[in-house]
């Protein structure tokens, strides 16, 4: 499969109200399936929003509710689900966690955000993940990071050098820094010669306004889709055949001098 039809569910998130957010996610999955998308992607922390002080009451214990519901939706609608991320309680800690399901409802990947965002005091409430995520979407090698992770090019380089061609980025990125969001994502797409699917939330919480601007970028950093600041679902088709051509013309992975980069 060289072409993938990707749906971006740019949603507003009800603060501290998982049940309401689960209903919205289900409606978006149905909408994406109606439009014959291969995969639908969601933003960061969509079950609770950044209700960090309430995680003890709200976080999904071991992610079981999220996994059960996303698996059922993926199977019912025969669609891959990139599950953005949710707040999960595990090992007496809380993790900002991504789940990815295939179109038969099988869990493909779990990722816990590796770089916690100090400006939102994330590290005071949540624990950092330690591992990469790699999964296939209909044969296309993919990976994901979460929001603040995109400021760490070393991390995305490592994930891309391992073979990924498609990077998913769920976010709750405040509108005050939208110009940094678009430029960082374009840089990650260009330097890693990868498609980037980045899904931000819209609306506001007690601390921030979120600007949407969810993006799909090609491996040259060109915008294939750029949303505004309203809640919506949009679908775009990406052609993975472009990857071989671009990586063949300018072979940055082969030209790396890793012998010089680290002590
Ligand atoms: O890096 C930024 O400016 C935003 C990061 C962020 O909001 C997050 O990681 O949740």
From TrEMBL:
One of its GO terms (molecular function) is hydrolase activity. Keywords: Hydrolase. Transmembrane segments: none annotated. Residues 4-240 form the CN hydrolase domain. The keyword Hydrolase applies. Belongs to the carbon-nitrogen hydrolase superfamily. NIT1/NIT2 family. This is Carbon-nitrogen family hydrolase. It comes from Agrilactobacillus yilanensis.
């Amino acid at each position: 499969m060289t072409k993938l039809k990707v749906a971006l569910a740019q949603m507003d998130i009800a603060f501290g109200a998982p049940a309401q957010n689960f209903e919205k996610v289900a409606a978006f999955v149905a909408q994406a399936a109606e439009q014959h998308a291969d995969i639908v992607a969601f933003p960061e922390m969509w079950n609770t929003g950044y209700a960090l002080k309430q995680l003890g009451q709200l976080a999904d214990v071991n992610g079981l509710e999220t996994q059960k519901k996303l698996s059922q939706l993926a199977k019912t609608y025969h669609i891959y689900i990139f599950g953005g991320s949710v707040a999960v309680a595990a090992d007496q800690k809380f993790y900002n966690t991504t789940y990815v399901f295939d179109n038969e409802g099988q869990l493909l990947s779990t990722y816990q955000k590796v770089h916690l965002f100090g400006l939102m005091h994330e590290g005071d409430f949540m624990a950092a993940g330690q591992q990469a995520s790699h999964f296939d979407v209909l044969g296309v090698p993919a990976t994901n990071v979460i929001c603040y992770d995109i400021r760490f090019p070393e991390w995305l380089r490592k994930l891309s050098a391992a073979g990924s061609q498609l990077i998913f980025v769920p976010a709750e990125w405040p509108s005050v820094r939208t110009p940094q969001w678009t430029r960082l994502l374009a840089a990650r797409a260009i330097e890693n010669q990868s498609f980037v699917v980045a899904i931000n939330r819209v609306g506001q919480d007690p601390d921030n306004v979120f600007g949407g601007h969810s993006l799909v970028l090609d491996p040259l950093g060109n915008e294939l889709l750029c949303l505004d600041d309203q809640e919506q679902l949009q679908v775009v088709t990406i052609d993975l055949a472009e990857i071989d051509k671009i990586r063949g013309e300018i072979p940055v992975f082969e030209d790396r001098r890793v012998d010089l980069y680290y002590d």
